């Protein structure tokens, strides 16, 4: 009996891993990576500081700032996008970020993930810079706190600094129109106080 219990306890971690891996595999095979779970949705963004991307300048020639989690809790809905120059899907997604910024009227904060500063600057020079601020996560530690599976990943954050939506994988025209823009529009409507009744 003791040996049976010992065998069970040894196999328990393996069984838990298999169940979790099966869930992730099913979500990935379904064609909708956004089905991957996020424990952050409904919670405040992790307390993080994203240093500026070394050498990146604004159009006015001043250093492009990094940002902190406090910048995401200033009363305005914002979007946070994890990206990297070595990430092929990030290239495909990049034009969608500009469209998102224009269509939703939100600030987009970019987090350059495990990248080299010269390569990241070249990427933005070639494809454009849709970001209000660009921070770096060079060692990937902040990504762990944010629950990032890989790049690209996008978070919608309400004015209080709470994550209200997470999109895993590149933003496409379909996901922009059917998911991100409606989520942002709903958050804006909820944040706008009702006018006086007549």
Question: How does this structure look, described?
Answer:
The chain has helices at residues 2-29, 88-104, 117-127, 141-146, 173-191, and strands spanning 49-50, 67-68, 78-83, 107-113, 133-137, 153-157, 163-168. With 198 residues, it is α/β, with parallel strands linked by helices. The chain has two domains: 1-31; 33-191, Glutaredoxin. The longest helix has 28 residues, at 2-29. Residues 21-36 have low confidence and may be disordered.
Topology diagram in text:
Layout lengths: L1 H28 L19 E2 L16 E2 L9 E6 L4 H17 L2 E7 L3 H11 L5 E5 L3 H6 L6 E5 L5 E6 L4 H19 L7
Parallel strand pairs: 3-4, 4-5
Antiparallel strand pairs: 1-2, 3-6, 6-7
Helix pairs in contact: 2-5
Q: Note the quaternary state here.
A: single chain
Mean pLDDT: 85
Q: Structural class from helices and strands?
A: alpha/beta
How far apart are the first and last residues' alpha carbons, in Å? 76 Å
Q: How many separate helices?
A: 5
DSSP strand count = 7
Low-confidence stretches: 21-36
* Rg from Cα: 20 Å
Q: How much of the sequence is in beta strands?
A: 15-25%
């Amino acid at each position: 009996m003791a040996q049976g219990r010992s065998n069970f306890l040894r196999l328990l971690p393996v069984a838990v891993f298999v169940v979790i891996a099966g869930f992730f595999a099913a979500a990935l095979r379904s064609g909708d990576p956004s089905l991957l779970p996020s424990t952050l949705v409904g919670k405040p963004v992790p307390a993080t500081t994203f240093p500026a991307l070394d050498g990146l300048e604004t159009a006015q020639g001043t250093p492009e700032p990094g940002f902190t989690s406090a910048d995401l809790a200033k009363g305005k809905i914002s979007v946070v996008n994890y990206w990297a120059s070595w990430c092929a899907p990030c290239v495909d997604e990049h034009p969608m970020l500009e469209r998102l910024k224009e269509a939703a009227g939100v600030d987009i904060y970019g987090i350059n993930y495990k990248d080299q500063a010269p390569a990241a600057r070249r990427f933005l020079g070639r494809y454009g810079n849709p970001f209000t601020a660009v921070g770096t996560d060079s060692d990937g530690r902040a990504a762990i706190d944010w629950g990032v599976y890989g790049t690209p990943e996008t978070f919608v954050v309400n004015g209080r600094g709470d994550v209200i939506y997470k999109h895993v994988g590149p933003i496409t025209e379909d996901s922009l129109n059917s998911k991100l823009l409606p989520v942002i529009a709903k958050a804006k409507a909820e944040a706008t106080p009702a006018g006086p009744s007549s």
